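Please go through the protein record below and see whether the fold suits the sequence. Record follows.
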Amino acid sequence: MREIVIGIVASMFFAVTFILNRSMELSGGSWLWSSSLRFLFMVPFLVIIVLIRHNLKQVLQEMLKQPFQWICWSFFGFVLFYAPLTYAASYGPGWLVAGTWQMTIVAGTLLGPLFFEKVQTNSGIIKVRNKIPIGSLCISMLILIGVVLIQLQKADSLTLSEALIGVMPVVLAAFAYPLGNRKMMEVCGGRLDTFQRVLGMTLASLPFWLGISAYGFITVGSPSSDQVLQSFIVAICSGLIATTLFFIATDRVKNHQGKLAAVEATQSTEVLFVIIGEVLLLSTPLPTGWATSGLIIIVAGILLHSYNTKKINIEQDKQIQFYEQKEQQL
């Protein structure tokens, strides 16, 4: 399926984030610049894209309607997502951070009850609170086991405090990212497309990135030319190319739940791309022993998650039919 190939290529570009963040840390670059420069570089490109599509005015109007909501959830979705990831890159190889990042699937499952789903019935649209599906939770716990296993390879060389510093920021990011983005989708209410929403969130989070940049300039000085170049590459590869490719793939199969689940499962391959990239570019040793087992478990768990998603969608369709039949009886 062509869409699966597109999804895998998108994952390859997403992997650039973890590889180059680690590269910048190894060369002495500060995480303060690694995190802020990506989003500062994204602004002009996103503005140009939205301008070409003649949608910039609508973005600004939506932001002015609910400025607090935009600032708050953009902070969760972007700042509390990316800053902790770049910070964690200081304490371990990219594949370790990428593997731990898969906990975002666990987070997404647990955050479900905080959101409502709109269901179309004959009498109109009703809101149904999402529930934590037991099957998805079990698969998420399997992924969590894999995350724990990949930490064991560095357990002998890390103190408890170092391990917590390297892992806990990623856990924070794993929960902040789906929370911020889902809340922003609620705020937008389908009125903005993907590029508009990403631009709006980038603009809303800009004061925080400027503040982080200022703090970085005061504490560590200006970034090196290599760090600026690598941050620019991350902004292009991950912030623009990867996101665009992934949404193209999912949009093509959005009406076929089985194919959509298969495309979404391609995200698990980014861990493998990170391992290959770091071995080739940074001479990072291959994961061994328990870490290899953990990576296999993570990939298998994500594939199971996608398969289970298909079953959940079928159950939701049955639920919609139930509501419609009940209303017809009334």
Remarks:
- The chain has one domain: 2-329.
